[in-house]
């Protein structure tokens, strides 16, 4: 019996690596002879870097950067010297999880630290970059990243704009002449975990701004500011990427990656599966177990469990999702390759209790699955 264990992280509770280990422990308790293959996954959001490091053996490196509020911080990134490939996760530098709820400010947060990580990769000799988006505290359409890479964003008086998306409303000059010349020879693949455009009712500001501290009035202000920025970019570049699926990822960083770094935008889970050789791992598998904090209707837009289930279905392998919670519309997952889905809770739990017990709950659910599978195998 070959079982592939490929979960994402369980937000605020377990990393993908820790989740995979918990599932493996549960199965091994009941079926020690089963062949278990742990493959931590990610879809571009927080924790994707860990999955890539675990799967590729890339070297973990550190850099001093600015966080989303411009404060000094340390961020990790990955380096594969043999292929001159860098792995950068936006959330490492500009992630929402690094801020308290009171600190979240979609109006003024910046992606400057992501640009600093790209500079560190270029200094190491990077020729290829895998940039994962998701989990951001920002809504500046990558403006901070551009400034770190050498661009100038000036107001009508020729002064540099303050950090943050709101300031883009005052943009008068977008000067790209100072961009680091090494970017021209850098190939960029960008992992996005959503397919939203940059603007409008389904755009970066409207859909993701509120979780970053934006009020209704802030959302309108940000959407107008990002539209103004997109107008300038289109005029200079001769291309307009605001409607591109994924442009709204990470507060508009998908837009910036495509427009200014010539990045290929790919669903994060597909990019990660390619990097870790997931198709080869599926060969000969009997079951796949995946999961994350919540499975719901929104998961269909590119979240890890659905991406894993779709690929497993193509390979003729059934899949089980172990989710912290089954939210509205989760049943639609059955139409996208999921064989069965289970919520972890074994009774009424507060959120804090569920987070504290996440590893034990995963282990218990995996143990139950193993008992079912083993009983069926023994009957056969």
Automatic annotation (TrEMBL):
<comment type="similarity">
    <text>Belongs to the glycerate kinase type-1 family.</text>
</comment>
<dbReference type="InterPro" id="IPR018193">
    <property type="entry name" value="Glyc_kinase_flavodox-like_fold"/>
</dbReference>
<protein>
    <submittedName>
        <fullName>Glycerate kinase</fullName>
    </submittedName>
</protein>
<dbReference type="InterPro" id="IPR018197">
    <property type="entry name" value="Glycerate_kinase_RE-like"/>
</dbReference>
<dbReference type="InterPro" id="IPR036129">
    <property type="entry name" value="Glycerate_kinase_sf"/>
</dbReference>
<dbReference type="GO" id="GO:0016301">
    <property type="term" value="F:kinase activity"/>
</dbReference>
<keyword id="KW-0418">Kinase</keyword>
<dbReference type="Pfam" id="PF02595">
    <property type="entry name" value="Gly_kinase"/>
</dbReference>
<dbReference type="InterPro" id="IPR004381">
    <property type="entry name" value="Glycerate_kinase"/>
</dbReference>
<keyword id="KW-0808">Transferase</keyword>
């Amino acid at each position: 019996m070959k079982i592939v264990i490929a979960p994402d992280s369980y937000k605020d509770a377990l990393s993908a690596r820790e989740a995979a280990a918990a599932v493996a422990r549960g199965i091994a308790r009941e079926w020690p002879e089963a062949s278990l293959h742990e493959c931590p996954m990610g879809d571009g959001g927080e924790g994707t870097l860990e999955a890539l490091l675990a799967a590729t053996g890339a070297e973990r490196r550190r850099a001093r950067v600015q966080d989303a509020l411009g404060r000094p911080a340390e961020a990790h990134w990955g380096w594969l010297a043999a292929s001159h490939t860098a792995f950068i996760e936006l959330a490492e530098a500009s992630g929402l999880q690094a801020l308290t709820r009171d600190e979240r400010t979609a109006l003024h947060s910046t992606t400057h630290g992501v640009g600093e990580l790209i500079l560190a990769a270029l200094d190491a000799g990077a020729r290829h970059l895998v940039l994962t988006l998701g989990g951001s505290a920002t809504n500046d359409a990558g403006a901070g990243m551009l400034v770190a890479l050498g661009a100038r964003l000036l107001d009508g008086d020729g002064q540099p704009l303050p950090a943050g998306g709101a300031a883009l409303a005052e943009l008068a000059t977008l000067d790209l002449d100072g961009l680091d010349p090494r970017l021209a020879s850098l190939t960029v693949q960008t992992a996005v975990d959503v397919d939203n455009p940059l603007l409008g009712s389904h755009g970066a500001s409207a859909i993701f701004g509120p979780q970053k501290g934006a009020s209704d009035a802030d959302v309108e202000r940000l959407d107008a500011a990002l539209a103004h920025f997109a107008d300038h970019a289109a005029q200079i570049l001769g291309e307009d990427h605001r409607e591109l699926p994924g442009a709204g990822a990470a507060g508009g960083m998908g837009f910036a990656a495509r427009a200014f770094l010539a990045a290929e935008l790919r669903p994060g889970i597909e990019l990660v599966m390619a990097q870790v050789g997931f198709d080869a791992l599926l060969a000969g598998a009997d079951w796949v177990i995946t999961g994350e904090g919540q499975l719901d209707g929104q998961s269909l837009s590119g979240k890890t469990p659905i991406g894993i289930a779709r690929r497993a279905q193509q390979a003729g392998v059934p899949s089980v999702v172990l989710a912290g919670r089954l939210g509205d519309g989760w049943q639609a997952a059955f139409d996208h390759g999921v064989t069965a889905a289970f919520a972890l809770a074994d009774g009424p739990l507060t959120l804090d209790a569920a987070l504290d017990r996440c590893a034990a709950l995963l282990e218990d659910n995996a143990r139950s699955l193993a008992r079912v599978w083993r009983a069926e195998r023994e009957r056969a």
